[in-house]
Amino acid sequence: MTTQRTTGPGTEGAARQVLARDGRTVDRPVGGGSGATFPLAYVRTGPRTDVPPVVVLPGGPGLASVLPYVRLRADAARRGLDVLMVEHRGIGLSRRDAGGAELPRSAVTVAAVVDDVAAVLDDAGVERAVLYGSSYGTYVAQVFGARHPDRVAAMVLDSPVLDPPSDLTLSRRHRRRLLWDGALRDGDDPALADVAAAVRALADDVPAAELAHVVQVVHEFAGPDVLHRLLLARRAGRLLAVWDRVASLGAGESEGTGVPFVMEPDLVAGIMYDELGFGLPPDGGPLDPQLAFADAAARHAARDTAPPGGAATAGRDAPAGAVPTGPGTVDLPAALPAFAWPTAVLSGERDLRTPRPVAQRVVDLVPGAVLVPLTATGHSALDTHRRAALLAAHAATVGAVPRLPALADRLAALPRRGPSRLVGTAVTAVVRATTRHP
To answer: How far apart are CA 17 and CA 152, in angstroms?
Structure first.
């Protein structure tokens, strides 16, 4: 069945204009039981040099590459970076087959996406590349490394995903230690003790999913001081409009058709809920990240297990949200010790989605990998601190990955660029203008 989608004025035209200027398509098999092919779109910008190009793999899943990252590629080109970006199958310019039909969800898998990236390298005449992955893109990069190790020159893993069930355990433990228990360790921001107390004080007044989401967003984008002020204001019945606006951020990113050619989560739902663990159930504890996905995950499970016109019966032997194994899947913790290329792991100090313990586990598994800790930074430097991201990518192209940890503080202190940083700027300005320091 074809989903009815409304394209914003000029959005498709703008995407196709970028593709016509900077890229091309390569025919790829749809798979998933279909014998059709589809045009996989990709763009390449910047000077061709004697160093490997950088394949940038953004987060999501569901995030497009061609249109949302025009400015990033322009900045990269000014820095002399040769950048390739692939429009993920099932999204934007890679959404439909040669006959105009949407790709089946069964054809949109991580294994297929990884092989699409390899096909783009073939089409572009690239033997080896630096892979820069952000969030979900790090998962794609690592699976690519496991399946195509001869094509990797180096990796930058920004806010890495490793093993969804284990990552979730570490994320819950990390966010509860900092923002619920206030059990701080050396190096933690002392202000977090008061933040944790304010979170606990508000827990009976605000729905658990809403509280978890607002705490995550404000902590990552604006920091502990602004979060503390907002929590105290909310408890006093003030700044309700600001609170509600923050609580609504990200709505539509986990299901539905999203924003065409920008964020389209519907056809990647299988990756999201079945491969990446978005459908893993909440555990009943505070600040659980899974609360944000619980309703959408239940609808995904019901839709995918229900026969036409009947009740859900198929697949009941598998627990809801279970991460599958089988042909095409990769055990990344087992695969990473074989990675033989320079690897930098970027980790934001404030990241609650793929927090420092997950990043450290990746570093521990990859021989010679280095941790690049970024202070006052949340999730995905690619989207919140573009200059740091591009400098890390450049270092990977010229063999300077081992130098990055010593430059981490300087990278973090650079002026912030990137679309997502505007969230923190706006929230900080409003909260600080209307509240006093506690």
So the answer is: 30
